[in-house]
Amino acid sequence: MKRFKLVSHTLLLGLFLLAGSCTEEFAEINTDPNNPVTISPSLLLPNAIQVSVDRYWGHSTRFQRLNIDAAMCWIQHLARNIYINSEGDTYEIPITVSIGTWENLYNSSLVNLEQVIELAGPGGQYENVNYEGIAMVMRAFTFSYLADAFGPIPYSEALKGAAEEPINSPKYDSVEDVYAGALEELKLANEKLSVNGPRVDGDIMFNGDVLRWKKFANSLRIKIANRQAAKKPAESRAIMQEILSSPATYPIFTGNDDYAELDHANVIGSRNKMFDVFSTRSDWNISKTLVDKLLELDDDRISVYALPLSDGTFVGLPNGLTDVAASTISASTIGQKFLEPDAPSILMTYSELMFILAEAALDGDISGDYMDYFEKAVSGSFEQHGLAMPADYISRLGTVDKETLMTQKWIALFGQGIEAWTEYRRTGFPQMPTPDPRAIFVNEGVLPTRIEYPPSEYSLNMSNLEQGIQLLGGADNMRSKLWWAE
């Protein structure tokens, strides 16, 4: 009996082990390597970066192009010569611009960034401080972009649909609170990012160069702090001074080799989106406002921004003209540099950072000579386009006050229409000329101050949307001013 019991127990143990082995083998057999349960950060990160950049620089789908159709026309870098009534130039855009911007940034970019942070964070399946830090930088960039476009947005409760306690109807947070969160996240990202830390794959922006991510994080943090400086001066000054006083801890852009941009290749699906748009359609010309200012200053950047007519002259198209009126004018089109399929999509440049520091110095928010920053900003813009700034260029500008500074920044931001639009809304500069008498503008003639919330928020998140509109302090239209606006 004893022997029987021993054999029985041994047999029972063997059956348990066999069952466990079979279960493991069953799991292995039934786990599809082409459809993994979790996706690694190296596969999530590229799409997240690409979508954020695409929606900022130049999406190629018609009726969804916030930068090309709306912002670049509103800020009078470009002007439309056809379809002006429905695609931006008359201060009117289809609601699909709001839908495409909102849904793609939330549902494609931010969702993937949130997954990267969860997977790469402490205790995550792919724990890696550099993946985590990169995703935090891009999340701060994307949320601040959404706030600059719409105003109050779902932020603190956003992206919680798959949480243990899911939130499917997130509350809205004010622009002030979104900025506070982004500033905190960028500081933490800089602390986490380790130049000598673990390797990162799938980084389509900086190819795993962690120092460049740290520079972008700190430069972006300065930009957000400066943008809110008129509303929160003490806090903003402290942030900028903290960064500038400790360059080893908080590296920033220091020359034209430092920038945040996405490079492209001449391969279908990887091309510069402006190439995809402008190489197939001729619906845009350079705005008369920009051409006239560049000609007035004898500014060589006109040869980069615009193509000359057959007689070698540069002519701009007035904004807001009807299709019939626009058809009577031969005007310059966008320059060849922006038509190259491998031209980069730009998020932030050294020149832009120097303009920010020049403004901060002029306003007394940081120490230093604002003219030194200003000259670096302007010369950096010329150098960015392969040009040398003429020795007498700064003297041509006369007294460099806030308007002069911001007008030069507007010139330098050509291509970054959303950024130029935001800076105009914040400062009121540059002063826009009196409209052409043939021009037709809707939106009560007001250059849009924001874009409207998408219909999905009205149908799926109405109670919280109402709270967001209260935080906005005005109606959900394109005339209500944002928190930081002039």
From TrEMBL:
<dbReference type="InterPro" id="IPR011990">
    <property type="entry name" value="TPR-like_helical_dom_sf"/>
</dbReference>
<keyword id="KW-0732">Signal</keyword>
<feature type="signal peptide">
    <location>
        <begin position="1"/>
        <end position="27"/>
    </location>
</feature>
<protein>
    <submittedName>
        <fullName>Starch-binding associating with outer membrane</fullName>
    </submittedName>
</protein>
<dbReference type="Pfam" id="PF12771">
    <property type="entry name" value="SusD-like_2"/>
</dbReference>
<dbReference type="InterPro" id="IPR041662">
    <property type="entry name" value="SusD-like_2"/>
</dbReference>
